[in-house]
Specification:
The protein is α+β, with helices and mostly antiparallel strands. The chain has 9 helices and 16 strands. It has helices at 82-90, 107-110, 113-118, 127-144, 148-154, 223-234, 253-274, 279-285, 300-310; strands at residues 5-10, 15-20, 44-48, 51-54, 63-67, 72-75, 97-101, 122-126, 159-160, 164-166, 169-173, 179-186, 193-198, 203-211, 240-245, 249-250. It has a 7-stranded mixed beta sheet with strand order 3-4-5-6-7-8-10. A 6-stranded mixed beta sheet has the order 11-12-13-14-15-16. It starts with a strand and ends in a 6-residue tail after the last helix.
Length: 316
């Protein structure tokens, strides 16, 4: 066991506590940031009665929230700008944050869980997301704690998995017209992908099932099934979407844009494979010039590899 990092599961697997060098054993008494004190609020867009989206800086994970009669529901949150997100919520309401949902098992979605739980929130996620979280979050945190930035970010904190899970769907009744449908969508971006849908307000929080004008990450997912999920989302009655990454959008056009992206890239990978090109050659020769203005270009090589393997290609 490392001298600087010790990790263990506690509370029957509900959370994972971490002690990093110099933190000492008093993790349970760690202080949670006051939630927005002194922080500059991130931009907030109102999308319906009590339903809002928080635009994260740059290409970071966005957050959606719903103000209910008795408290606030938060969906997807990155710890890097936690105070600024809480400050954004506080520009709208001073009601307590009572519920928090995860769209998938990635740190830019679940890393606020500990802080939100300490603020009194109950944590929700799909059954598959929680299973995935318990498998991948501990080793990723151990790796993160090997860096000074990771040690600073996680100091006095622990991982926290969803406490309440759902198979297909769970509905939170937060007030008239503010029912939140937490829906498991299947394996798209990851194995545990879920969305939060407010049908009365016609608003959808997608987490990473939607990237807007940004190259998506599909290395842990299934591109074909992701497109089936996008088709299902396009069938919903939606006026506003809070995507995982990128600007807030009105309408459902960007769902089709992302599906078309997978069709385009897959077709071009297939064509190059039929010419006998190796994966390395495909990465060099593929023409994706129509997406040259999209951000997250660093995701393209692994997306090409994923599609290559889904089409039956093997290691170069």
């Amino acid at each position: 066991m490392s001298r600087t990092v010790v990790s263990w599961l506690m509370c029957a697997g509900v959370g994972l506590a971490v002690v990093a060098a110099g933190l000492g054993p008093g993790l349970a008494a760690a202080q949670v940031p006051p939630g927005g004190s002194g922080a500059q609020p991130l931009p907030v867009t109102q999308m319906g009665q009590g339903v809002y989206g928080i635009k994260a800086p740059g290409e970071d994970m966005n957050t959606g929230f719903v103000v209910g009669d008795d408290g606030v529901f938060v969906f997807a949150c990155n710890l890097n700008t936690f105070d600024a997100r809480i400050a954004a919520i506080r520009t709208i309401t001073d009601k307590p944050i009572r519920w928090a949902g995860n769209g998938h098992a990635a740190a830019d979605d679940y890393s606020c869980n500990f802080d939100l739980k300490r603020m009194g929130a109950t944590l929700f996620g799909s059954e598959r997301m929680r299973e995935n979280f318990l498998e991948i979050a501990p080793p990723r945190l151990v790796a993160d704690l090997r860096t000074p930035a990771g040690q600073q970010l996680w100091q006095g904190r622990s991982l926290a998995a969803p406490e309440i899970t759902f198979g297909d769907e769970l509905v939170l009744h937060l007030g008239e017209g503010r029912d939140v449908h937490l829906m498991y969508m299947g394996k798209g971006h990851t194995i545990g992908d879920a969305v939060a849908y407010m049908p009365d307000q016609r608003v959808l929080f997608t987490a990473d099932l939607l990237f807007v004008e940004l190259h998506p990450t599909v290395r842990d997912g299934d591109s074909a099934n992701w497109q089936r999920i996008l088709a299902r989302l396009m069938g919903m009655d939606v006026d506003w979407i809070v995507p995982g990454h990128g600007p807030m959008v009105q309408g459902k056009e960007q769902l089709q844009v992302l599906s078309d992206y997978f069709d385009t890239v897959r077709a071009r990978v297939r064509a190059l494979m039929q010419q006998g090109k190796t994966l390395d050659q495909i990465r060099t020769e593929i023409d994706l010039s129509e997406y040259s203005g999209w951000g997250r270009q660093n995701s393209v090589p692994e997306t090409l590899e994923k599609l290559y393997r889904e089409l039956g290609g093997t290691a170069s």
